[in-house]
């Protein structure tokens, strides 16, 4: 099975969504590069998957909050064997903005936004040159619910960026045969919640998806050609309607004069009195 599809590099691969992607992609015949901070967990996962699937697996310990480690992963993404990037590493900082620790907020933005962007940028030239490959960016339904943040407004905003970045990048890269998929999970049973200070067991359990189900749905969406996959959404027509309504705004988002309701730019000229 090894080398049937090339190599997939997965960030945040030691547990949760990343570990399940590793399992599923190995069973599809991808060789793997597993990236996370916890070397022991990565080695245990790699050993199990080698035994079960026979694919080649490289463990690349890296703390993506550290610039030197990020650059190390960028270099690996530039190799010729890379066929897929699963941009999964991310954190959530919960709570209202008024009391949020600014350092934790900055760390979340750096990982969820800046690092995800840099890793995608690193892999793009090679995929374009080979005219094939996939970038899977793990976003969140929080990115389209900015007015109702389930975790925090900062987290929602970071995932809104991932969605916008993915859609725009897909438009840019699709002529070269490269696919970009944004995956928007709802509440998923992972360690992210506890690390963010939220007990997932306090959520309505009918709204919490198991990690394996989420990843299986996301990969099925990729197989079906979806560029945005919302695993819990029953009817894809609802997302299509959302995109149609958004596109309908386009012609009126940039015009020479302000809208009439603002009372400027549309008023009749004022007649000045004639000089005597």
TrEMBL record:
Superkingdom of source: Bacteria
Statement: the UniProt record of this protein carries the keyword Amino-acid biosynthesis: no
Swiss-Prot/TrEMBL keywords: Oxidoreductase
GO-annotated molecular function: oxidoreductase activity
PANTHER family with a match to the protein in the record: NADP-DEPENDENT 3-HYDROXY ACID DEHYDROGENASE YDFG, VERY-LONG-CHAIN 3-OXOOACYL-COA REDUCTASE
Family note: Belongs to the short-chain dehydrogenases/reductases (SDR) family.
The protein's name in its UniProt record: Short-chain alcohol dehydrogenase
Provenance organism: Microvirga lotononidis
